[in-house]
Amino acid sequence: MKYLSLSLFGAILMLSSIKTFAQLPVKPLAPQEQLLKSDNPTLERNKKLVYDMWREFLEGGHLEVAEKYFDENYMQHNPNAAIGRKAVVDFFAKFTKPQPIANNIKSSVVAIIAEGDLVMLSFVREMPDPVDKSKKYTTTWFDLFRIENGKIAEHWDCAEKMKPN
């Protein structure tokens, strides 16, 4: 009987939590300067390479620095972008213009993780609530980069294919 009561209590708790489940908001784990640190100098250098590319090239719109950051044969796994350094420049040239480069990434960075030749940035992403359009919720966006010979050689993210204009 004791086990039946515990099982029944567990089932009631589980079912009641479905209705009252509330997502925790996504927040940065630490200030960006701390996220860049590593005990391994190679991993720290790789993190900084990706971080600086994000600030200067992506957010700053300084496409002229592409050679500094991207391998000529840069491999792209985003279904909306082509392969190669020239292709990444051409892609961002359509909607980017140079602006002052910030000291930190403007987007809210959750984590910067490096392992081997890979660096992952994760970001807070705010989205409209599909049930109540007057509300928003946070989720997480991921970008993963592979470093080769001091340059970004490959990229993955969770982008979905978009309709062409």
UniProtKB/TrEMBL annotation:
Which residues span the membrane? none
Name of one Pfam family that matches? SnoaL
Note the InterPro entries from the entry.
Answer: Cyclase_SnoaL-like, NTF2-like_dom_sf
Signal peptide location: 1-22
Q: Does the keyword Signal apply?
A: yes
Keywords on record: Signal
- Cross-referenced Gene3D superfamilies: 3.10.450.50
Q: Does the keyword Ribonucleoprotein apply?
A: no
Return the protein name.
Ester cyclase
> Upper taxonomic classification of the species?
Bacteria, Pseudomonadati, Bacteroidota, Cytophagia, Cytophagales
